[in-house]
Design a protein that fits this description.
It comes from Nocardioides luti. The chain is about 45% helix and about 20% strand. The chain is an alpha/beta fold and about 290 residues long. It has one domain: Rossmann fold (3-Layer(aba) Sandwich). Strand 3, helix 1 and strand 4 form a beta-alpha-beta unit.
Length: about 290
Amino acid sequence: MLVSERIGQFFLESDSGRDRLEYTEYGAGDAWVVLLHGQLMPRRMQQPLARALAAEGLHVVTLDLLGHGRSDRPADPLVYSMTAWAEQVVALLDHLGAPEAVVGGTSLGANVSLEVAVLAPERIRGLVVEMPVLNNAIEAGIIAFAPLMFAARFLPFTVNGLRVLTRPIPRGLVPFWVGIGLDTCNQRADSVAAVVHGLFFGRVAPSSKERRRIQAPALVVGHPADPIHPAADAAMLAEEMPNATFVRARSILEWRIAPERLNRATAEFALTCWKTPRRSRRAGRA
């Protein structure tokens, strides 16, 4: 089934200036779903899932958070935090005129989705949380991203040089996920250093106490054999949140190379969130 796709943008005013954020809409209607990308990745990584959900009648929006993809990429680490990114999602909903949405994402996007649920619970119809980065991932995250931050800060030619090498490669001539990898390499050293610095020195996710208060229905997806996103974190999160369901992926690559099962589970979950009146869900928890 073909669905309409439209690119849009909106602007945020802050003490540091005016920032432009870009998004893509898939489909139409009032059953909103917002999908967020992983760290340093573009929103296009969520395109296959967005198209699959839109084909089921959902109105899906993928957003490039500040510092990512085709949105602005300031070099100031003070503008990057989980809370700031969550505020950008709320600003997107305001811009679209969407009172509520199912909000979800992968890795960084998963944690931002949790922050939105804490910041503005009245805007959350449901959560789709893939590969959250919580207690069991701290050490692996430091090992993975600290060298990147230092390289971007003190050896900027490494990051900028990779951009020069990969940017000219036509994305239409390579497989989809190779293109996403190339897009992820399209970074500027100053903004990469700022993004990672903001993550390291801000809070990574809502506290366990806050997560236990999230009442929205949630679909939590964990991957085996992934040290940066251990399945133990996803399982722990599903236990903490009172209305969460845990789904174990068959492998770290299942949703990328054989997505049918997880796409179907996500579509069914999101449709159920929209078919179930919000008042009835709250009454059912009492």
